[in-house]
Amino acid sequence: MAIINDIKMPVKKSSKSKKTPPSQMLRVPTPLIEAVKELSRLHRLGQTNAVLLGLQSLISNIDSNTDSDIGASETVKQLQLRLEKLESRFDSDIDSKSILKSVTNLEEKLEALTTRLAQLEGAMMVLQRNNSGAKRSSRSYPNQYYQREAPQLQPFEEKNLALRLVTDVATLRQKRETMTEKEFVRWCKDRDPSSMGWRYEEKDKLYYPVK
User: What segments bear the compositional bias annotation Basic residues (predicted)?
Assistant: First the structure.
């Protein structure tokens, strides 16, 4: 008679009863997505050596990308520094040009003022000389009442007449050469302190008074 032993075999729990651990999401740079997918496929196939080689290649790519990013960042910083230097140099050049222009304008104004003062000084000397002659003439005849004529003016050189007329030699010469004799005499009368006209004599290069 056969003896049958009932052996209770352990029952494996269904895999469905186990809870699946939550998946972990990893952020991967866009250029490396395809490489990560390939490593995942090899891992599922159990090809450990291929996975290790792929990881080494992936790490090398990440390192090279990081170095290139750092290099690009340093290049950008150097470009910014050079741009700032160029801007500061450009600003300093503009300041130097504006200062030089202001100095030039100031020198021109001072030169024109000096010329004007010299002309006024010459006119005052002529007036003082005329007044001194009139006073000496009145002291010579203190007891006589008569209508005294103005002192006779002597011919003037071009530079002296320019001072008397409160102008410069170039202007005096230009007026004489472009005007008729009558127009030039009238122009001189309008500027002369004694309303005296002046006529130019080519033979001795002098200007003679004309009433």
Answer: 10-19
CA triple 129-134-137, angle to 5 deg? 125
Query: What is the rounded CA–CA span in Å between residue 167 and residue 101?
Result: 28
The residues spanned by each domain of the chain are 109-139+155-210
Q: How far is 122 from 128, CA to CA, in rounded Å?
A: 10
Shortest CA distance to 168 belongs to which of 129, 118, 124? 118
Tokens of 12: 């494996």
Judged by DSSP in three states, 202 sits in coil
The pTM (predicted TM-score) of the whole model is: 0.32
pLDDT in tens, 64-107: 655 555 555 677 777 778 778 777 776 666 666 777 777 787 77
Name residue 146's amino acid. Y
Residue 188, number of CB atoms within 10 A of its CB: 26
